[in-house]
Amino acid sequence: PHDQPKIVVATNVAETSLTIDGIRLVIDAGLARVARFDPWRGINTLLIENISRASADQRAGRAGRTAPGRAIRLWTEHEHAGRAAHDLPEIKRVDPSEILLTLKALGVDDVAAFPWLEPPEPRALERALTLLHDLGALDADGAPTPLGRRMLSFPLHPRYARMLLAAAERGAVRPVALIAAIAQGRPLLVRNAGKHAADLRRDTLGDAGASDLLLLMRAWTYARRHRFDLDRCRRLGIHAAAARQVGPLWDHFLRIAQSQKLPLESAPPEDDDIAKCVLAGFSDQVARRLDRGSLRCDLVHKRRGELARESVADDADLLVASEIHEIGRGDGETHVLLTQATAIREEWLRELYPDDFSERVAVDWDSAAKRAVARREILFRDLPLASRPLDPPPAEEAAQQLAAAVLSGECPLKHWDHAVDQWIARVNHLAKTCPDWELPAYGEAERELIIQQICHGAVSYKDIKDRPVLHTVKSLLAPAQTALVEQHMPERITLSNGRAVKVQYADAAEPFVSARIQELFGVESLPALAAGRLPLVLHILAPSHRPVQITQDLPGFWRDHYPRIKKELSRKYPKHEWR
């Protein structure tokens, strides 16, 4: 209580947690700092966002709790109608890795089955568990490691808890805490500040080695030394307001480090020690340059991106990116940009993560040479760090690559012809018509198996293009099954007038025979296939071999249609026999 009018400045904590007697007026800016996962930095951060309509109602309720009051909203009614009805639950907005590590430490093995009030998104759960494994907080069975339990002592995102623990071992707690503080806020450096600002920044701040983070630390130190002077900061492309917010956060992180008995060094550490601490927190964002002529990189977890052109780590073959930006393009593709990069060395990876190295043989398809090629690779997790050619490639993998090229149509087999397609259709029709005979049908899996058999022992298209096919295709059936096909789905049938005609088979149509009318004289019916279960379709042709009737009812044709057709065609083809 106070005798004079009083102004209370409150965050959104006042929406539900605070009642002050005598409040008659609320002026609502409609904004709040919201905890949200930042996919660029891989951490949770506070972002200024518009509040929901439900939050606005809660804020308005602060006025008039004990007497009539007013609420003034600093946005339009039209904008209000377009705002979200309710806030998204925090568990759906943030990275749940810290929560999951806590649950694991409490003995919850299956976090997906945990009775959440609001469950996290499955993709967020998967991403968080992968991160905890990468940080060494969980073992292969998903149980918390001693390192993971130590990380829980820090009220920080697991990335920075891991970095501070690494910093304690290397005498680098102060700079790592500063890096963590800089990462929490708005960008410290103006992007595309211009060549003059870049040159002045380089001359003033000096060589920052091969780490954008070291450059940020120097920029902040410069801003603090000049008391965050706007003009001085602007000339170097430094956001003075963003720099001013770093100091209190740095002090906060140092207090956390002291509370956890981490030694604060008195002498500055080596740049390599700082880089190793960054690597400890972002090992899931290790990247390798693909070539020296571009900035394209492969990353851990089968991702690909491009290093920012302004990065001071642009000469490194191996680096770790503290930020990954996914930028949508007009063509619907996503451009992945790697920023805040730090150059690292392979021996550091072997020192910190000796169990994450492996070797494999990778087999790929060379479309230009039309052959399978192989290389032996050294991997950090799933990221190839080095490779050398391997010739010849492993037989089974080479056959799979060849088979894929055949199936895609890139390498057609010369002898996969009409006869092969006819045999496959014959078998499939008999298997479908007589399921009790238990014949194997040719599906996509069987076709792939057959082609792999044809490709076995070969590494190039030249090796297989002339190989026989029909014998391999028929080998899917036992001799007795082949005999059933020949008997009940024959290539040719003999009509009652003694003429032999070829049966045409196709997977998507019923079997049929074609014959000119003159070849059918004396034929009253057609034999059925598959032990009488599958009637044949008859394509009756004119002397010109054009169809005049398609039927399964030959007696009905002679009785109902032939007199009319005979009258028409005999005038057109008088030299042919007409009965």
Task: Kindly describe this structure.
- With 579 residues, the chain is an alpha+beta fold.
- 37% of the residues lie in helices and 20% in strands.
- The chain is built from 20 helices and 17 strands.
- A hairpin with a 3-residue loop joins β6 and β7 (303-307).
- The radius of gyration is 38 Å and the shape is elongated.
- The N and C termini lie far apart (120 Å).
- The mean pLDDT is 90.
Brief summary:
The protein is α+β, with helices and mostly antiparallel strands and 579 residues long. The chain has helices at residues 53-60, 77-82, 97-105, 122-134, 146-151, 158-170, 173-184, 195-205, 212-225, 230-235, 240-259, 271-281, 346-352, 395-407, 418-433, 444-455, 461-464, 470-474, 479-488, 554-572, and strands spanning 25-28, 31-38, 43-50, 70-73, 286-289, 296-299, 303-307, 318-328, 334-343, 357-366, 371-380, 383-390, 492-494, 500-506, 509-516, 537-541, 547-551. A 5-stranded mixed beta barrel has the order 5-6-7-9-8.
Question: How do the helices and strands line up, and which of them pair or pack?
Answer:
Elements: E1 25-28, E2 31-38, E3 43-50, H1 53-60, E4 70-73, H2 77-82, H3 97-105, H4 122-134, H5 146-151, H6 158-170, H7 173-184, H8 195-205, H9 212-225, H10 230-235, H11 240-259, H12 271-281, E5 286-289, E6 296-299, E7 303-307, E8 318-328, E9 334-343, H13 346-352, E10 357-366, E11 371-380, E12 383-390, H14 395-407, H15 418-433, H16 444-455, H17 461-464, H18 470-474, H19 479-488, E13 492-494, E14 500-506, E15 509-516, E16 537-541, E17 547-551, H20 554-572
Parallel strand pairs: 1-4, 7-9, 15-16
Antiparallel strand pairs: 2-3, 5-6, 5-8, 6-7, 8-9, 10-11, 11-12, 13-14, 14-15, 16-17
Helix pairs in contact: 3-4, 6-7, 6-12, 7-9, 7-11, 14-16
